[in-house]
Structures are given as structure tokens and as C-alpha cells.
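Sanity check. The docking grid for iron/sulfur cluster depends on where the pocket ends up, so I'm generating a full predicted complex first rather than guessing from homology. Inputs follow.
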Amino acid sequence: MTPQNDRFWETKDLSELTSEEWESLCDGCAICCLHKIEEEKTGDIYYTYVSCLLLDNSTCRCKSYENRFSQVKDCLKIKLKGFNRMHLLPESCAYRRLSESKNLEWWHPLISNDPNTVHEANISIRDKAIPEENVHPDEIINFVFFKVE
Ligand code: SF4
Ligand code: SF4
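Predicted complex below; grid placement will be based on this.
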């Protein structure tokens, strides 16, 4: 990983980032690749421990990143322009943190220069999630992880 000496995320607005800078903000936690459920009455969103079909739980990488949107219809399209669902991202996510004027934590790869710190700090879901093929859709509700605040 290239050391980030310019700390672009502290000096630029999210809308001013290059595509490369934008991509580098993803810490690889894979939390957004967990299934979410919405409570009908309140609209509250909950993340579950159940992971997307295409997630490799041991690496936290998408098995088909280039084709993900054609294969998984509710894959969150977190993009540089026009993304208006920041509130659906976990509080640890760099995109959400920066949109709320918070800085990156020590474990973020851009700070630590080490892609493993997100796992060592127990932020990522590496080896924690349950693959969706192991859970009946009606049972996903039994695997709530946390509520989106
Ligand atoms: S939650 Fe944010 S930081 Fe984590 S994988 Fe998703 S986009 Fe990347
Ligand atoms: S398709 Fe890939 S990027 Fe999208 S939620 Fe599934 S594992 Fe994550």
C-alpha cells in the first residue's frame, strides 16, 4: 500500500475526490455486503450476520466485483456522484464518517498503511458472517447484528 502523505480526505470534500481517491476510502470491512432488513412499521434498518452470495468471507472480497450489479440486484452502488444512501452505511465506514465530518480511525488502511488493521481491530466481518446459502430467507431475521443509527 502506498503511504498517503497528502491526506486528501482531510483537505477535500467528498465531491472533489478523484475516482482513485474515492475507491481508496473503502477499508475492505465488507459490512455493507451483509443482508439488511427493514422493520415495516418504523422503517428502521438492521444489518444481519448473513452475507451476500458473492462475498468471500475469509478475505472480505467480492467474488465478482466487476459484474456485481448485474448479479446482485440490491448490491449498494456506493459511487462518487449522486450517492444519497450514506445513512445505510455502518458508522465505521469512511464514506459515512467523512460525510459526517468525522476523521478516519487508526485502523483505516490509509492511516495505518496496512490493509490488515481493519481486520485486526475487529471492524471487518472476516470469518464472522454466515453465507446466505446457509440460511433460509425466512430465518434471516434471527441473525440481527446491529441497528443502523
Ligand atoms: S462499509 Fe464502507 S468501508 Fe466497509 S466495505 Fe462497505 S463501502 Fe467499504
Ligand atoms: S455483490 Fe459483491 S460487493 Fe455487492 S454486496 Fe455482494 S459481495 Fe458485496
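Relevant for the grid: Helices lie at 8-11, 19-24, 68-71, 94-99, 109-112, 117-120.
Also worth noting: The CA atoms of residues 33 and 48 lie 10 Å apart.
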